Amino acid sequence: MKYFGCLLCVLFCGIGLAAKSKISLNPIVSSELSQLLDSTNLLHQYLFEKKEPQVKSQINQINSRVQKIMAVAKVEEQKGPHLNRILMTIQKEFNLAQSVSGEDRVRFLQNAYRQLVTLYQSYEVDKKFAVFFCKTDRSVWLQNDNKPKNPFQPDSNCGRKVQ
Questions:
Q1: Does residue 8 sit within a domain?
Q2: At residue 131, does pLDDT exceed 80?
Q3: Which residues are CB-contacts of 136 (< 8 A; sequence separation ≥ 6)?
Q4: Is residue 86 in a domain?
Q5: Which of 6, 26, 120, 154 has its CA 20 to 30 Å from the CA of residue 127?
Q6: Are 108 and 96 in contact, with CB atoms under 8 Å apart?
Q7: CA-CA distance, 74 to 86, in Å (whole number)?
Q8: What share of the chain is helix, strand, coil (3-state, %, to 5)?
Q9: pLDDT tier at 63, thresholds 50, 70, 90
């Protein structure tokens, strides 16, 4: 009976550890994803600094990078369609953000960043980013410094590092 209790403990501890591990990808895809996150970090800066012409240009560059990753990631299909689904959603949300303005644009950008955070939390990529959350607008985003800079509410101090 004592051994059965130890076995259960090992199993449940193992499940807890497995839940926190990230999915590994081949080095090419992992490198491309890291570059995508670098591009979205630059977009984050442009949004925070309200540099509208650079925002539009950067979104176009991000969409091109996503297309490239989806082509390269075809070899990763055996790990499931999760990666491609996330990438397609990111691309869709950024495309929609390009076609509207105001609150609708903010909503599409928030959706895209939500997917980027999921990507960052799910796959082994560059670990230099921090995840932030703003309780006011329920947004999440990635950035590479520790002081919160909410790209959706640049004039507010809303944001807390959560990872």
A1: no
A2: yes
A3: 153, 156, 158
A4: yes
A5: 154
A6: yes
A7: 14
A8: 65, 10, 25
A9: very high
The model's pTM is 0.82
The residue range of the domain holding 93 is 23-126
**List of residues 6+ apart from 130 with CB closer than 8 A:** 142, 143, 144, 145, 146, 161, 163
Return d(Cα 8, Cα 116) in angstroms, integer: 36
CA–chain centroid gap for 153, Å, is 18
Among 150, 119, 147, smallest CA distance to 134 is for: 150
Establish how many alpha carbons lie within 13 A of residue 89's alpha carbon, considering only the half-sphere containing its beta carbon.
Answer: 16
**Amino acid occupying residue 60:** N
End-to-end CA distance of the chain: give it in Å, rounded.
Answer: 40
Q: What's the CA gap between 143 and 44, in Å, rounded?
A: 7
Beta strands in 35-159 (DSSP E): 130-134, 139-143
Residue 156 lies in a domain: no
Report the number of distinct structural domains present in the chain.
Answer: 1
Structure confidence by residue, pLDDT tens digits, 80-130:
688 889 999 999 999 999 999 999 999 999 999 999 999 999 998 867 899
Residue 143, beta-bridge partner list: 130
Segment 18-47, tens digit of pLDDT: 456 888 888 888 889 999 999 999 999 999
Answer yes or no: are the C-beta atoms of 90 and 109 closer than 8 Å.
no
Residue 146 DSSP code: S
